[in-house]
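The data are passed on as follows:
___
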Amino acid sequence: MAISRRCFLVGGAAASMPGDGSWLDALASRVRGGLLLSYEGLGDSAFDRAHGNCAYLYDNAVAGVALLAGGRVAAARVLGDALVAAQGRDRFWKDDRWRNAYAAGPGPAAGSYPLPGWWDTAAGHWVEDAYQVGTSTGVVAWAMLFLLRLSAATGDAHYRDTAARAGDWVESHVRGPRGYAGGFLGWETSPASLAWVSTEHNLDLAVAFAALGRTEAARHARVFVESMWDARAGRFFAGLTPDGADNQAAAVDANIWPLLAPGASPAWLPALDWVLAHQGVPAADPEGVDFNDDRDGIWLEGTAYVALLAQRVGWRAVAARMMRTLVDQTAPAGLVWASSVPRLTTGFSTGLTTQADFFYYRRPHIGATGWAALARLGASPFT
């Protein structure tokens, strides 16, 4: 490995993390009767217009898990109630799926739950984003994880029942011979089916199904995750491409999250080394990680994953460096920036084209802030 273990203190107690403790406050203060706007500080770029009223379900689930971990149950419950309403009041689907995003802010008391979009002045019509209105399997899994935690925290079985119905949808619509496929992209009535399979999505589902007591479904997902481990390289593959080949793209979540989940194998710990060696920024003594391996900037959400795992396995020097970066990369409004540079490449496609057109922009981000709060608390969202 390019990263020397001299930097790491393995097996010690959890490090004392720097930080101002305000990330939970920043999240809780924004909960006002509905879902949280994913990105703030928006301007007039194409990205900003597409996210002006967008509450990504994943970001809100992460924020909800962080709020629960920090004891902010009332705020988390507001987000959970919005998820319940969104599942049961879709404008078209009646099969208990969620969309990838909804309109931010207080939800209506009745009628269909609104989806995000924007007015295209030049074209003279309302526009919706194909990904936002689609359904990603991993997003569904994260909403399930959040609601299961919320049910445990409140004793309200309604949240668990909602998660169970979403699990039924996953089993019925995206289960494949190897794990669970990516989901659907686009609009009703016939969104495109995504044939690729994600290590990260299946890890999420393995934990969620286990929490629901669905042993066979959990095993189906977990067997796929374990099959993606490359012992020779000491890393996980990102999953399978649509044609069934191993996807060898560098993926922080695919390598870090399995080590945060119940039943993590000690044999997987080299994955943390692999991420730092191939995605660490800067390359020597990394203070953050990139989304992919071109190291064109720091991805703050992924940096929080590494901070949390490094803390939990006793790699205190790494954890401290990552946490300092998260603190330094917190915007004045209290949210962590999505990236350290104006536009961060990922190497992945949004699915709308075959090009690597998925980017992170430097905007204050709810998802990155939720993960930073989890890292500050030393709390895994999977256990």
In short: Residues 1-20 have pLDDT under 50 and may be disordered.
